[in-house]
Structure formats: C-alpha cells, structure tokens
Amino acid sequence: MPQIDSHQRCQAQDLLRFIDASPSPWHAVARMIEWLEEEGFCGLDERESWRLEACGRYYVLRDDSSLIAFVLGTDPLPEAGFRLVGAHTDSPGLRLKPNPAHAAEPMLRLGVEIYGSPILATWTDRDLSLAGRVALRGETPTVCLVDFEEALVRLPNLAIHMNREVNETGLKLDKQTELPLLLAVLEQELPPAQQFLKLLAECIDCSEQAILGFELCAYDTHKGAFWGAEGEFIASSRLDNLASCHAALEALLAEEETAATRVVALFDHEEVGSESFKGAGSSFLQDCLFRIGAALGLGPSEVRRALAASFLISADMAHAFHPNFSGWYDSEHKLVINQGPAIKVNANLRYTTEAFSQALFIGWCEEANVPFQLYVHRSTLSCGTTIGPIASARLGVRSLDVGNPLWAMHSVRESAGTCDHAFLIGALTQFFACPRIPVSG
Ligand code: ZN
C-alpha cells in the first residue's frame, strides 16, 4: 500500500476543488487569477506599457483563456534567465454549435461540435451541464462567464435491446445525428432557438436580444473524488491538463524569492494544435518575455542572453500502465501510478526531452526527494504531442516534457494518483529554485 501523507492528500484535494470550479478553460483561468490576486499578483495589460518592481509578481491574460504569471528573480535576468513551466488550460469535449437548438420530435436537442479528441462513449449517461462564455451587446460588446451548474443536458445511451452488439463492437456514435444533447420536451408555443436562448438569458440575467455569441462546453457535474483501498487514486474530469496547471501555480507560489525569474505559461488550444493567437504556437510567451526584459531596461540581445540561460518544463499528463490492456504499452516503460512524474521521451521530437534536459530534471527530482519514471510510447502506436516542442522551438530554449501518470486520458472522467500531484509540485518547486541552468559540455 502506498503511504499517503496528509500533505499529499491536501494537495490532491485542492486540485479536485480547483477542477470542480473550472468547468471551462475560461473558468479555469478566472479561478487562477483569483488565486494569484490573493497571493499579491498584479494584472498587466498587453496594450499598456509595463513598469515592473523588483521581485514583483504579475500576470498577463490573453483573451481570457491563456495566462502567463511570473515572479521577478533577485539576480540579473541575462545571467539567471527564466525558469519556465508550460501547460494547457483546455480539455477535449463537446462544444455547442452556434445555432444549437433544434427539434427532434418530441424533444429539443442541442447540436455539438467535437473539440479535440474526447472518448465520445464516456459522455453518455452523465449528468451534464454547460459552461463557458457569452458575448453580450452593449455600447461595445462585453463578455461574461456562464455556468448552469446543475445537470441540464444528457446523452442517454441506446438500450442494449436495440444495440445487442455493443459489448463486442464498442459504442460508436454518429457525430452528426447521435451526439446532440437532449435538453427538453419541445414547447408548442416557442421555437427551439427561443426556448434555448430564454434559458441562457435567464442564467446570465440578460435579455435574449443581448446575446451576440457564445462558446459553451458540456461538462460532467460529477465532482472529483478519491478512490482505492487507501484513497490513493483521484478521479475527475479535465485532469488533463488542469492538474499540471494547478501544480505549476502551486510551485510558483511555494517560494517567496528565487534567483531566477519564474514564469508559468498556461495556453488554451493545445487539444486542437496550439495554432491560434493565444495558443502555444502564438507570440504570447515570447512577447511577454521580451516585454519583461524591456521593462527591466534590457535590449533584445540581453533578453536573448536570458533565453540562452533559461529552461522550459512542459507539463502534461502521461499514460499510466493499465493491467487490463497491457499489450498497449512498452514493457520497459510502464508508468506506475503514485511513483512520480514521467519524463516523456520521443525520438521524433513529439516530446522535447533529450539526454541533458533529462539529466537536469532527474537532478531536481533527487534534490526534492521526488521519484520519477521514464515513458516512451509503444512503437506500433503513434505518439501524441503537447506544447513542449512548439513553445521551445519558438523561444529557442532547452526543454523537456514531463507529466503525471493518468488512466483514461480524454475520458470525461480520468484517474490519477493522489501522491503524484504533490510529487510534481515538489519537482517543479525545486526547478524554480535553481539559480543557474548548467550547460552541457
Ligand atoms: Zn494534455
């Protein structure tokens, strides 16, 4: 049995509470901003010029779902460089179409688009709700967050009597005709579009005419939970990758002062390729780092020096070994839950880890007394990727990819280890405290 101490359990509990309060990327970022402001961080606006104070704590937001938070270090930036941790705020799932409401006699359904690559079958028979953001008419348009909170929509399964082969073939859903979510019985006097807009307007407390657009995600209202003989596992939606976002911020807040400037960069749109004006493929992180340099009176070549002295840890969840499906893993790289973060390796650079960045991370783990594991994908399967390769290539900064072991990645309910969350926080905290990144050779 793993020994779970109360500190580890507490950190996992905080994580579950954070995810429960973050049903969409916009909610996750809003929650993290509240948290940062409680810890004395000041918001910076990309449209304004920045004035930064020594050892100051700041955050920058791009379009409400990508967030960069940083704490200035005590040592000169060109020598100490940046300690960067990157993760993503979005999770795969179902998003409402622009005109979602339609009649499917005798029901009103909401049409959905698939965002990223969720395991669709896991969305059936769940107590689903909707959350996201709505653009409202005003003198100039404004945006507000919305969350229905209670179970509102559902995707009931087809009874086995009509789908006798389901346990042999698996559940296959037609993405256009079998995925719309059931909302209500049709009302005779109200067209479907009005019926839905009325609900949405009531939830926001605005008029239906004020709604100019929305981005709404379906989510499971089932709260996060501990499970296992000793509560050694956690289950929740969106562990991929809100668990890494949470760990990054916990590590950022663990120390008052460090020699190097610490940066946490959390991007939207990883699940759909990162190429947007706020994704990891955008200028956001680079812009922020150069502007930090400029605010400190450094020219571009001094910031380039700082980048050369920097290091990026890209944190995203990894595939835990599942004994029921042992043939899908590489037998020498089985990730065991609660045995620490995985260093993710891929010869074709789907992950950025190389020998030297791996060596550095192992050093930080050892200093923090954190176990670690090595992961490589089974050779017959195509490997996923994450923000690491994109962000480190944009910046020209050495990097590695790590992540905590996770079961059922992209299921509406994923599982991970209670101890692993604290382990990752410990390793990232140690990394942030590193005063100088050693050079290879
Ligand atoms: Zn991920």
Structural write-up:
By secondary structure, the chain is of the alpha/beta class. The protein folds into two domains: 6-91 and 237-433, Aminopeptidase; 94-220, Aminopeptidase i, Domain 2 (Roll), CATH 2.30.250.10. The mean pLDDT is 96. It has helices spanning 6-20, 25-38, 77-80, 166-169, 192-204, 239-254, 284-295, 300-308, 355-367, 387-395, 418-433; strands at 42-44, 57-62, 66-71, 82-88, 93-104, 107-115, 128-136, 142-147, 181-185, 211-220, 225-227, 233-236, 261-267, 311-315, 318-319, 342-344, 373-375, 399-403, 405-407, 414-417. 28% of the residues lie in helices and 25% in strands. The structure holds zinc ion. Zinc ion (ZN) binds next to helix 6.
Can you name the CATH architecture of the largest domain? 3-Layer(aba) Sandwich
Write out the distinct hetero groups bound to the structure.
zinc ion
Outline the biggest β-sheet: 9 strands, mixed
| Proportion of beta-strand residues | 25-35%
CATH superfamily of the largest domain: Zn peptidases
Helix content: 25-40%
- How far apart are the termini? 42 Å
Assign an overall shape: globular
pLDDT below 50 for ≥5 consecutive residues: which ranges? none
What would the CATH topology of the largest domain be?
A: Aminopeptidase
Mean pLDDT: 96
Top-tier CATH class of the largest domain = Alpha Beta
Q: What is the total domain count? A: 2
Biggest sheet, strands in spatial order?
Answer: 1-2-3-13-4-14-18-16-17
* Secondary structural class: alpha/beta
What are the salient characteristics of this protein?
441 residues; alpha/beta; Aminopeptidase i, Domain 2; 2 domains; 5-stranded mixed β-sheet; 11 helices; globular; binds zinc ion
